[in-house]
Design brief:
The complex is a heterotrimer of chains A (258), B (237) and C (619).
Chain A (H helix, E strand, L loop, with lengths): L1 E12 L2 E12 L3 E5 L6 H8 L7 E6 L2 E2 L5 H7 L1 E4 L11 H12 L15 H10 L15 H13 L5 E5 L7 H18 L2 E5 L3 H7 L2 E6 L2 E6 L1 H6 L1 H8 L15
Parallel strand pairs in A: 3-8, 3-9, 6-7, 7-8
Antiparallel strand pairs in A: 1-2, 1-4, 4-5, 9-10
Chain B lengths: L3 E12 L2 E12 L3 E5 L6 H9 L6 E6 L2 E2 L5 H7 L1 E4 L11 H8 L12 H7 L1 H5 L10 H13 L5 E5 L7 H16 L3 E6 L2 H7 L2 E6 L2 E6 L1 H6 L1 H8 L2
Parallel strand pairs in B: 3-8, 3-9, 6-7, 7-8
Antiparallel strand pairs in B: 1-2, 1-4, 4-5, 9-10
Chain C lengths: L1 H31 L6 H18 L3 H26 L9 H23 L15 E4 L2 E4 H23 L1 H11 L1 H6 L4 H23 L9 H16 L4 H21 L7 H12 L27 H15 L1 H4 L3 H25 L8 H16 L5 H23 L4 H21 L1 H4 L5 E2 L9 H24 L1 H11 L1 H6 L4 H27 L1 E2 L6 H14 L6 H16 L5 H15 L3 H13 L11
Antiparallel strand pairs in C: 1-2, 3-4
Helix pairs in contact in C: 1-5, 1-6, 1-8, 1-9, 1-10, 2-3, 2-4, 2-8, 2-9, 3-8, 4-23, 4-25, 5-6, 6-8, 9-10, 9-11, 11-17, 14-19, 14-22, 14-23, 14-24, 15-16, 15-17, 15-22, 16-17, 16-22, 19-20, 19-22, 20-22, 23-24, 23-26
Classes of the chains: A alpha/beta (258), B alpha/beta (237), C mainly alpha (619).
Pfam families (chain C): BPD_transp_2
Membrane topology (chain C): Multi-pass membrane protein
GO molecular function, one term (chain C): branched-chain amino acid transmembrane transporter activity
């Protein structure tokens, strides 16, 4: 069953079509990859899916409900979580407090001035951190975290609202190969355990071909291909505009998969 | 070694109270491509920034062409012939491609042919088509090319490339590999920081592996292959 | 017809001089990211130097124009000295520290000018060769105004040419976007910054020198022009020279016609226009989102709860204050109440600025609203003290609700400028609306109730202040306070976890306004009178200085800052040339302790107690 249904999504910036007539479905518990050259429109697409940008045309439906025209924070309340290409975290808070903030918002307590924020939802926050392997870092300052850890923190924050759909913009950028595999395996587990549907963008083809159930390819704002890893690898157009000869990713990670 | 272009030794760098680099030491020959490998947070970027003077090391020595440059300001380091290509691209988005190149322009070196905009446009044909476009309107891959071209306008002898393959499309990564090989043919020395061992192997002569701010391995890729445990332990393969 | 055309030409002539000042300010902000409060002082210096040169050199038109250019060059040199001696040391400091430092420079230049040229207004001669009027449509137009109308666009053209066609211009534009990267490409930023600052100072000096034939030279020129120059820069978009030109024309021409309809409008019109423009275009006419922010802040360490020792220390401080009446029942009590007022005022500003990340240049508006509301409740409604006191925070909250609604839609420097505009509008209304507010004469005879002796009022003030501070602390540690802090750290993330950030910021703005109103009430009854100065720019800057002296990143900061400020002010204002001394003290603190007194103390603490965890950032 399709959880997120995207039809005819179009966006123009200054006369240039950044995204043009993009349609696809995200099934329940599906791990769907969106790949394509830098500037192909992937991030623009993401921003239209959860309300940061209003499309010029097209529709985005979550379980049949139209999302176009709804503010990001409402889209989040309806069950669409998001991690960012360049991480967005609360730098002056500890790791745990970042997750607590998401939980405070989830429980609609942001106007409360009677409690101490750092005493709320501690166990729930720690459980989420444990889930992404960051239990030991709970009391660290977020500003001290390495980039890869920030990505994992964002995942924990995104899970706090128990989303139906999770949008992950380049989730493994800045991570070492084994961390990439671990993060995506973790995401895969979450998909299985909770039935979340995940759409992600990624430049690491090893990650994409290992983990994605299905792959969409975007070039100059248009979907040019859609299919399994094997189909995409064999697609001549995708090779020409994006994958190249494959010399820089085949066998990366020392054959740790495959 | 006396014929090293750059020799780093005993480098210690702190951010606030955190000890980021401890006694980092390595060297680069005059026409050598060296890859600084390690996982994120290991200290690769900090090493490059410490050499460039963007971060002030607390102790240690950076000798370039026989002269101590540790603690010099970035513009002095650059004027000595060290070019820096940052990880986040950092093109001047409101300036045109031409103007971006102009910012990087430095006088030519006596012993090498000068990089001119025309030569760079030949090397990066995409830039030629867009020379009067604001850099911010270009795609990520094109911006990556522009940062390298901009740095080459300074006629460096040594280029520091921070994570050149990170976050860009495979096709552009292939071009990046070609460019690095071209720089070596031109007689330059290159230091790249990388997490992608496969890419590093394609473009570089030697590897320096850094973990938790300290150097764990220095040698050729053949040496590294002979010691799979090292790569396993330090690069999280 | 002719009359209106003449009005238009007057407006355009004013626009030219306004443009010269504003464009220098914009260039300086673009390159150094410093909001230069001392820019009006450079303008004033240009006028004074030109006055001296023009009245000593009598050499006809050539002598006049040479004097004007020489004055601008001299001001450029003064600018170089300021940049090299002071600004260069604080480029990495938080942007507000830079603002306060330039305010210190403003104070120093004010007293230096007073010492050199005296307190009398000076009237310069007309420009030789341009001292007559020509008739256009039957109306007399000063020839000099026509010359000014030409000079503005010529300067705009020259600057545009320099920025587009010279290497220096390209480097300046590049540095406006990414200073560090320009340095890593081999450019010595120091000289780039110094030269950009000199160009800005030159233009300010030129603007000042060109005013000599038009108006008398006085010590009020600096503050009277800086507000309008800020407005022009903001309307045009921070860092945009062309924007400054368009904005200068809009403001000056509207002003020229506005005064025909409503003579008092010139006090508030520029700020009104700015408020309207910013609501429609949050980054000015030609600004970009990136232009809203100065140097990226260094992330602060997570908050820690006050430990046992801290609670004991704070209790001891309160007990020590409570025991004050035993020691002295006169001057010290008065000073202590001043201190309570300042602490509460500074802490309320810190709530929106430190916790909420919304910098207010006009926080005195809510202090003043509180003071006036309470005073009017006593004088007009005839209420006793305690019920009248309640009017203060109510009125302040209402004012903050109205202005805050607009302000929270902006960010960074633009938000700060709109708060300034709001305060300036309120000040203008208070100043003009004589029948209600008494105008410049203020409201007198607002004394505490007869049961409230000096000692009782002291205890009342102490109690109100302690409760106010406790409330602020509680809020900062609550989910609401964390939400504000989260919004400051990353608005994108706040929105992405379902938070309606603007609504929370608005509420924070109202709470902080109400608390400032409480401080204003305490002030009104302590002094027995209220004057428009309580809402003026100077008073808002006082609060900023207090917060910055204390350190923005600490909840205890406002306490230290306000204490230091009140004590220093009490001592210094008794001296001759106190502005000079006060300015020097501000500069000293800015350069020696850029993280404020609280930050400096905690650094000292770490030095004497190694092993305390420190924060830092890895690669």
């Amino acid at each position: 069953m399709s959880v997120l249904s995207v039809r005819g999504l179009t966006k123009t910036f200054g006369g240039i079509k950044a995204v043009s007539d993009v349609s696809f479905d995200l099934e329940k518990a599906e791990f769907l990859a969106l790949i394509g050259p830098n500037g192909a429109g992937k991030t623009t697409c993401f921003n239209m899916l959860n309300g940061y940008l209003r499309p010029d045309a097209g529709s985005v439906k979550l379980d049949g409900t139209e999302l176009v025209g709804i503010r990001p924070r409402k889209v989040w309340r309806m069950g669409v979580g998001r991690t960012f290409q360049i991480t967005e975290t609360f730098a002056s808070m500890t790791v745990r407090e970042n997750v607590q903030m998401a939980l405070i918002s989830h429980h609609r307590q942001t106007l409360d001035i009677t409690h101490r924020a750092r005493a709320l939802h501690v166990a729930e926050a720690d459980a989420l951190l444990a889930r992404v392997g960051m239990a030991a870092d709970a009391d660290r300052a977020t500003s001290e975290l390495a980039y890869g850890d920030l990505k994992r923190l964002e995942l924990a924050v995104a899970l706090a609202h128990r989303p139906k759909v999770l949008l992950m913009d380049e989730p493994t950028a800045g991570m070492a190969p084994s961390e990439r595999i671990a993060l995506m395996a973790l995401t895969g587990d979450i998909i299985k355990a909770e039935g979340v549907s995940v759409l992600f963008t990624e430049h690491d083809m090893d990650v994409v071909f290992t983990h994605a159930h299905r792959i969409l390819v975007l070039n100059r704002g248009r979907l040019i291909a859609e299919g399994t890893g094997a189909e995409i690898r064999a697609n001549a157009e995708v090779q020409a505009v994006y994958l190249g000869g494959g010399s820089v990713f085949h066998g990366e990670a020392g054959g740790a998969h495959g | 070694m006396a014929d090293d272009l750059l020799a780093v030794s005993g480098l210690n760098t702190y951010y606030g109270g955190a000890h980021i680099l401890s006694d980092v030491a390595f060297a680069i020959g005059g026409n050598e491509v060296v890859a600084l490998l390690g996982r994120n947070g290991a200290g690769k970027s900090t090493t490059i920034k410490s050499v460039m003077g963007l971060v002030r090391p607390r102790s240690g020595s950076v000798v370039y062409q026989g002269e101590e440059i540790a603690g010099d300001e970035p513009y002095r380091v650059c004027r000595r012939g060290i070019g820096y290509v940052p990880e986040e691209r950092r093109v001047f988005s409101e300036l045109t491609v031409e103007e971006n190149l102009e910012v990087g322009r430095r006088p030519p070196r006596a012993d090498a042919s000068e990089w001119t905009p025309e030569r760079l446009y030949a090397l990066f044909p995409n830039l030629a088509e867009r020379r009067r476009h604001p850099a911010g309107r270009m795609s990520g891959g094109e911006q990556q090319m522009l940062t390298i071209a901009r740095t080459l306008m300074g006629n460096p002898r040594l280029v520091l490339l921070d994570e050149p393959s990170e976050g860009i499309a495979p096709l552009i990564v292939e071009q990046m590999a070609m460019v690095i090989k071209e720089l070596k043919r031109e007689g330059l020395a290159v230091l790249i920081s990388e997490q992608n061992l496969h890419f590093a192997r394609i473009v570089s002569d030697r590897a320096v592996i850094i973990e938790k701010g300290a150097v764990r391995f220095t040698g050729t890729f053949a040496d590294l292959d002979a010691n799979p445990d090292i790569a396993q332990a330090t690069l999280a393969l | 017809m002719g009359f209106y055309f003449a009005q238009l030409l007057t407006g355009l002539a004013n626009a030219s001089s306004l443009f010269l000042i504003a464009c220098g300010l914009s260039i300086i902000f673009g390159v150094t990211r410093i909001v230069n409060f001392a820019h009006g002082s450079l303008y004033m210096l240009g006028a004074y130097i030109a006055y001296t040169l023009v009245t000593t050199i009598h050499a006809g038109p050539f002598g006049f124009w040479a004097s004007v250019l020489l004055s601008a060059a001299a001001v450029a040199l003064v600018g170089a000295v300021i940049e090299i001696l002071i600004l260069r040391r604080i480029y990495r400091a938080p942007e507000l520290f830079q603002l306060v430092a330039t305010f210190g420079v403003l104070l120093i230049i004010q007293d230096a000018t007073l010492a050199i040229w005296g307190a009398e207004d000076l009237l310069g001669p007309r420009a030789p060769g341009l001292d007559r009027a020509v008739r256009i449509f039957g109306e007399p137009i000063p020839e000099y105004d026509l010359a000014l109308i030409v000079i503005g666009p010529v300067v705009l053209g020259l600057i545009t040419l320099v920025f587009r066609k010279t290497r220096w211009g390209v480097l300046v534009r590049a540095a406006t976007q990414d200073r560090e990267m320009v340095g890593a490409l081999g450019v010595n930023q120091r000289w780039l910054f110094t030269s950009a600052f000199m160009l800005g100072a030159f233009l300010a000096g030129l603007g000042g020198a060109l005013q000599v034939p038009r108006e008398s030279v006085s010590l009020l020129m600096d503050l009277s022009v800086i507000g309008e120059a800020f407005v022009v820069v903001v309307i045009g978009g921070m860092g945009s020279v062309g924007g400054a030109f368009v904005a200068a024309i809009i403001i000056s021409v509207l002003n020229a016609f506005g005064v025909l309809v409503f003579p008092q409008i010139s006090l508030i019109l520029p700020f009104l226009v700015m408020a309207i423009v910013l609501v429609v275009r949050p980054y000015g006419l030609f600004g970009s989102p990136a232009s809203a922010h100065g140097a990226p802040p260094v992330p602060e360490a997570p908050m820690r709860p006050l430990n046992q020792a801290g609670i004991v220390a704070m209790t001891l401080v309160v007990v020590a204050f409570a025991a004050l009446p035993v020691v002295d029942d006169g001057f010290i009590l008065v000073l202590a109440v001043d201190l309570f007022v300042a602490v509460l005022f500074a802490a309320s500003l810190h709530l929106i600025m430190g916790v909420g990340g919304m910098v207010s240049f006009g926080h005195a508006a809510y202090f003043g609203l509180g003071a006036y509301a309470a005073a009017l409740a006593v004088k007009t409604l005839g209420l006793p003290m305690l019920p009248a006191m309640l009017f203060g925070p109510l009125a302040a909250a209402l004012g903050a609700a109205v202005f805050g609604w607009f302000c929270v839609r902006l960010s960074g420097v633009y938000l700060a400028m709109l708060t300034l505009a709001a305060a300036q509008i309120l000040w203008g209304v208070t100043f003009q609306w004589q029948s209600v507010t008494g105008g410049d004469d203020g409201i007198l005879g607002v004394w505490p109730a007869s049961w409230a002796s000096r000692e009782v009022y002291f205890y009342l003030a102490l109690a109100v202040t302690v409760v106010g501070l406790a409330l602020i602390r509680r809020i900062a540690n609550s989910p609401f306070g964390y939400t504000l802090r989260g919004g400051r750290d990353s608005p994108t993330r706040a929105e992405a976890i379902g938070i309606d950030l603007k609504a929370h910021q608005w509420l924070g703005f109202i709470i902080a306004g109400a608390l400032a109103g409480v401080a204003g009430v305490l002030f009104a009854f302590a002094k027995g009178s209220v004057f428009p100065e309580t809402l003026a720019i100077g008073h808002s800057i006082d609060a900023l200085i207090m917060v910055l002296l204390g350190g923005v990143q600490s909840l205890l900061g406002p306490l230290f800052g306000a204490t230091a400020f009140v004590l220093i002010e009490d001592w210094v204002t008794r001296l001759d040339y106190w502005r000079f001394i006060f300015g020097a003290i501000i500069l000293l603190i800015c350069i020696a302790a850029p993280d404020g007194i609280a930050g400096g103390l905690s650094r000292l603490w770490r030095l004497v107690r190694p092993g305390t965890p420190r924060s830092g950032r890895p690669a």
